[in-house]
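Module 6 notes. Inverse folding takes a fixed backbone as the condition and produces residue identities as the prediction. Think of it as a translation problem where the source language is geometry and the target language is the twenty amino acids. Below is one complete input and output pair. Work through it position by position during the lab.
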């Protein structure tokens, strides 16, 4: 039997000697921690990641605090294994408790968002590749393929058989044959993926006066405790380059940085700008990366080997070793809302985590959310403004056309629905070889056609989509989209 335990967590330091009990929180929809016995010879600290038996299976959990101690000893199960991963920090455990209380969600369900890569907690399985032997074995015949393989592996670290064959441009049978005859020997492969460290001063950007003022203010916030700053700048004003300076300052201080974005698929240009500024790409975290990369990234974040992460809202629950700043880009986007499982607003939870970690958080947007503007006006958030585009670029001129003053000309080039000033502007663009994009408020004349007599809804004979009516000079059509 698993005994329910106390729900409070404690700070760092020794929690239990071998043979004692601890409270363990498991990543299941349970609101309490449970007592487990500490194996002989094991000493645990709060936040240690352990494998424990639960209902006939084993799951990874986290040591949360002292045991309740009100259950008979023979009914308390023993911890099966202790992970080699670093313990979860007190701040992260506090954050888990806060999110669980605020969202009225069992603590175990929130913990599951942190321990969402169980493979990262497993012990490394030794894997082996091949390297070249010191000398060519006596009596082994030479071939062109074998000689090419021998040359390609000269001074090379251990590679898998497939990588060795690919490097030398030979078939896998050549690698296996030379391995069997002693020309190659087995060697342990490197188990950890390498994450290059961004250089804070790799490139010096030329900032405008307004950007320099904003960047200085953000840099001064690094290491100065908790703060929330709205970076409010028009499109093209260079907000990204400004908060890059805050990230650079965090790197100089030996801290990590997290950048949250609403849609990871839209970050290709951002990644290129980051690499030009810092010399290397950042680590990326979202649901589409491979399981192997998720495992290695989770481990590297926990170990402090990853210095900068850009990710979707789930990256907020990564076990950072030394988080120094959080940036929420396009903070107004609705994509930061999690609407299934644990329901939360990623932007707001970023502010909460920054508060618990006592670090600054930057909210960047050209169209700030009403909630953020209200916090600015109440004095809870600071505000930095970039009112002009960078590099002398100007905003496009926007003109409203009054269709009462300039109605469409029936039978004209615009087929009776484009106003003459718009027709002239399009013609001018075409004459200059430029493009024009028209946004329509809806598709077709009517999105639904229903018989007034019987109520029959006209739908596509191939699917269940409603047919959309399109009217033209030659009549009308019902189209499936």
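Target side of the pair, the amino acids:
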């Amino acid at each position: 039997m698993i005994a329910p335990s106390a729900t409070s967590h404690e700070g760092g330091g020794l929690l239990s000697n071998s043979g004692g009990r601890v409270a363990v929180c498991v990543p299941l929809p349970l609101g309490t921690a449970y007592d487990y016995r500490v194996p002989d010879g094991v000493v645990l600290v709060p936040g240690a990641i352990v494998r424990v038996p639960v209902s006939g299976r084993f799951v990874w959990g986290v040591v949360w605090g002292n045991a309740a101690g009100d259950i008979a000893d023979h009914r308390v199960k023993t911890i099966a294994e202790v992970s080699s991963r670093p313990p979860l920090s007190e701040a992260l455990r506090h954050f888990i408790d806060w999110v669980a209380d605020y969202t009225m969600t069992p603590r175990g369900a929130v913990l599951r968002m942190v321990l969402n890569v169980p493979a990262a907690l497993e012990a490394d399985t030794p894997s082996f590749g091949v390297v070249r032997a010191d000398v060519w074995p006596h009596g082994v015949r030479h071939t062109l393929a074998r000689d090419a393989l021998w040359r390609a592996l000269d001074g090379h670290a251990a590679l898998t058989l497939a990588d060795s064959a690919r490097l030398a441009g030979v078939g896998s049978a050549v690698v296996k044959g030379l391995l069997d005859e002693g020309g190659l020997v087995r060697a342990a492969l490197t188990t950890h993926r390498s994450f290059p460290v961004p250089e804070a001063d790799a490139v010096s950007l030329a900032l405008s006066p307004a950007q320099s003022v904003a960047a200085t203010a953000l840099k001064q916030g690094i290491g100065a405790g908790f703060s929330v700053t709205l970076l409010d700048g028009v499109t093209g004003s260079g907000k990204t380059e400004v908060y890059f300076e805050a990230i650079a300052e965090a790197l100089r201080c030996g801290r990590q940085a997290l950048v949250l974005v609403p849609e990871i698929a839209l970050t290709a240009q951002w990644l290129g700008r980051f690499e030009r500024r810092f010399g290397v790409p950042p680590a990326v975290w979202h649901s589409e990366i491979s399981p192997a990369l998720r495992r290695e990234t989770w481990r590297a974040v926990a170990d402090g080997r990853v210095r900068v992460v850009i990710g979707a809202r789930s990256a907020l629950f990564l076990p950072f070793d030394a988080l120094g700043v959080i940036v929420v880009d396009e903070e107004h986007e609705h994509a930061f809302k999690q609407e299934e499982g644990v329901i939360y607003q990623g932007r707001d939870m970023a502010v909460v985590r920054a508060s618990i970690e006592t670090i600054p958080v930057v909210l960047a947007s050209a169209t700030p959310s009403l909630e953020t503007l209200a916090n600015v006006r109440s004095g809870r958030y600071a505000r930095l403004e970039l009112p002009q585009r960078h590099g002398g670029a100007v905003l496009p001129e926007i003109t409203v056309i009054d269709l009462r003053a300039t109605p469409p000309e029936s039978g004209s080039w615009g087929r009776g629905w484009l106003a003459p000033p718009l027709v002239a502007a399009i013609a001018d663009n075409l004459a200059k070889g430029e493009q024009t994009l028209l946004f329509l408020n809806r598709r077709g004349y009517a999105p639904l056609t229903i018989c007034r007599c019987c109520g029959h809804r006209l739908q596509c004979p191939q699917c269940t989509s409603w047919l959309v009516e399109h009217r033209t000079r030659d009549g009308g059509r019902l189209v499936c989209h």
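Reference fact for the lab report: The two ends are 58 Å apart (CA to CA).
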